[in-house]
Amino acid sequence: MFVRGLKRKCFDGEEDIEGTLAGIKAIPSYNLQRQSLLDMSLVKLQLCHMLVEPNLCRSVLIANTVRQIQEEMTQDGTWQMINTQSPGQASLDRLVSTDILCRSSRDQAEGKHLPAYGAFSKDFESDQAQESSETMSTTSSVQAPRNLQSNVWEMENPQENKGNFQKSLDQIFETLENKSPNSVEDLFSEVDNSYYDLDTMLTGMMSNTKMGHCDSLETFSSPTNTASNSNCKSDLNDLDHIVEILVES
Amino acid sequence: ADIISTVEFNHTGELLATGDKGGRVVIFQREQESKNQPHRRGEYNVYSTFQSHEPEFDYLKSLEIEEKINKIRWLPQQNAAYFLLSTNDKTVKLWKVSERDKRPEGYNLKDEDGRLRDPSMITVLRVPVLRPMDLMVEATPRRVFANAHTYHINSISVNSDYETYMSADDLRINLWNFEITNQSFNIVDIKPANMEERTEVITAAECHPHHCNTFVYSSSKGTIRLCDMRAAALCDRHAKFFEEPEDPSNRSFFSEIISSISDVKFSHSGRYIMTRDYLTVKVWDLNMENRPIETYQVHDYLRSKLCSLYENDCIFDKFECVWNGSDSVIMTGSYNNFFRMFDRNTKRDVTLEASRENSKPRAILKPRKVCVGGKRRKDEISVDSLDFSKKILHTAWHPSENIIAVAATNNLYIFQDKVN
C-alpha cells in the first residue's frame, strides 16, 4: 500500500521471539530498525522546520519519540558505542538538530530564549560516566559558538553545561571582588592553569562586563574583535568564547 | 469542491454547516416534510454559501495563515437569524445568517432602479410598502475575534451561558465574550517557561453542556483535564485529571503518538466524555478519573502497521467522534472511507462505507468488514488494500434524529435511518 524504501517488518511485531539463537539474530535487527526509526524521525523534524508554519502537535510528538529512542539507546549502552566509534561532534549534531529543527520559525521571530541541546546533554551527563560527561560538556560547549554563528540562537544558557569552568569562574569572581589584584596568583592557585591563559581570561572578563546581549552575539560571529584574542593561541579561541558566554549569563 | 474540514448540525438539526479548506462555509437546510411525498423525508439542500476566511500573510513572521476552516459551532437560535462561529488557525468569526424575503417598494426620492428622482418632478407622496421577493439568504460577519492566538486554534466551544465561548490552540485556551472582540481572558496556559520542556500540547477543548463554569481539554499525551473556572482565573490546576494507565504489553515507540487524543466531546447529558485517539474511542465517566468506562477498538488491525503509518504521516491524522442525540450510539471515522458506529447498550458495532461506487442513493448501506489475516471472504477487504488517502475525519449526528453527515475528503454524505 505505501511501501517506500523502508522495510515493512516492524519491530512492533517481533516482540514474541523466543529461543536464544533467534533472539540473538533479532537483537541487531531491532537496533537497526530502531536506528532507522530515529533517522526517519529526524528527517521528519527537518521537514517540519522547512514548512511555513509547522504543526506543533506533530513536531512535539516526533521530538518525544526521538527522545524516547535516545533514552533507550543510552540505557542500552548503544549510544555510548556509537559515540566512541564516530566523532563526538557528529552525534551531537544529530541531537542538536532535533531540538533546533523542532522549533518553528515563529519562536525565532519572537526572540525566545532557547537553550540549545540542554535536554540531550543533560541526559548524557546524568547517564554516563564522569569522564565522558566532562568530554561531552566540553565538546558541547565548543559547539555553541558554531551554532550561534548561524544566528539561530539568542543567548546560550550554560546552566546545563556547568563543568569545571563555571565553578572556577565563580571562585574567581568572588575573590576578585574582595581581594586586591596583588593576590591574583593566590586566586588562581586552585584553578587549573593549563586550560587558559591568565591574561586573556582576565581581559576577556573585563571587556565582557560592558557588553550587552547583542554585542556578545557579534562577538561570536567575528571571533577576533577582542584584543585578548589576538594574543591567544588558536586552540584557546574556543575557550575564550566559552568564557564570554558564561560571563554574560 | 474543496476538502471539507468540519461538519456541524445546529441545535435543532434544521441546518447543517460545512467548512472547507478554501475558507468557505456551506450551509444546508432541511426541506420541510411534505405530505405529498412522505417517503421523501426532509432532504438537505444548499441554503447559503459564503467565504468565511481568506488566506492571510503574517508579515511580521513571514508566515502564511491558512484560510482552512478548522471548526464551526452554532449558537442556539434566539431570533429569526442564525448565528455561527467559524475559525481558521488564528481568527474566530461570528457570522449572522439571515433571510430576506421582502423588499420595500415605492420610495419617493428614488425610483425602482435606485436612481434619484428629480425633486421638482415629484407631485405625489406615497408610503413605501414591503412586497415579497425571492428568498435571499445573506451572511454577514458580525464579530471578528483576532490576534489572540499565537499557535493554531484547534477548538472552539460555545458556553452554556450563551454569552461566552472558548477557543483553544496548542498551548493556550482563551475565554471570550461575544460582545467584546478586542479582549479575551486566558484561562489555560501550558506553555513552559523553558521552551525545550515543551513535550505536551492541547489537542481539543470543550465546554460542559450545562455547567458554564466547567470545561475539559485533552492533550497529546492522552490525558484529559477538567477545569472549574470558579476556582481561579487561570485554570492551570485541574479539578479532575483523566488518564488511563499504560498497558505495558502494548508498549512501543509509537505508544505516545497513538495515545494522543484528537477529539473530546461531552455527552448530551453532561455526565460522560468521549475521547478519540488513533486506534480507539473511549468513554469516560466524569466521576471516575483513573480509567475509561468503555473502550471501543476502531481499527485495531492497524496496530501492527504503526511503523508504516508513521512513515507516511497517517499516524498523525486527527479523527473526530460524535454522540447521537440520546448518547446511546457513538460514531467515528476511519480509512478507506469507512466509518464506525458503536452501540453502547447492545455493544454491537458496524462499519459502513461512504462512497458513491459502492452504494446507490437511497440504498441501504451494507456493513463492511476488514479481514486481518488468513483467508479473505468475499465482500471483505484486506488491510493491505485499504486506501489511506480516503479518510473520514469529520462526522456529525443530528441532535434528535438518526441522520448523520459524513465528510469524505471533498464529498459530503448524508445518511438517514431507513424509512419503514
UniProtKB/TrEMBL annotation, chain A:
A GO CC term attached to the entry: nucleus
Highest taxon listed in the record's lineage: Eukaryota
InterPro entries in alphabetical order: E2F-SERTA_domain_protein (IPR052262), SERTA_dom (IPR009263)
Domain SERTA residue range list: 30-77
Region entry Disordered, spans: 125-147
Classification via Pfam families: SERTA (PF06031)
Biased composition (Low complexity): 131-141
Name assigned to this protein: CDCA4 protein
Gene that this sequence comes from: Cdca4
TrEMBL record, chain B:
GO cellular component: a single term: protein phosphatase type 2A complex
InterPro entries: PP2A_PR55 (IPR000009), PP2A_PR55_CS (IPR018067), WD40/YVTN_repeat-like_dom_sf (IPR015943), WD40_repeat_dom_sf (IPR036322), WD40_rpt (IPR001680)
Keyword Repeat: yes
Gene3D superfamilies reported for this sequence: YVTN repeat-like/Quinoprotein amine dehydrogenase
Record GO terms (molecular function): protein phosphatase regulator activity
Keyword Phosphoprotein attributed: no
Annotated keywords: Repeat, WD repeat
PANTHER family tied to this protein: PROTEIN PHOSPHATASE PP2A REGULATORY SUBUNIT B
Record-stated family: Belongs to the phosphatase 2A regulatory subunit B family.
Designated name of the protein: Serine/threonine-protein phosphatase 2A 55 kDa regulatory subunit B
Organism: Cisticola juncidis
Gene: Ppp2r2b
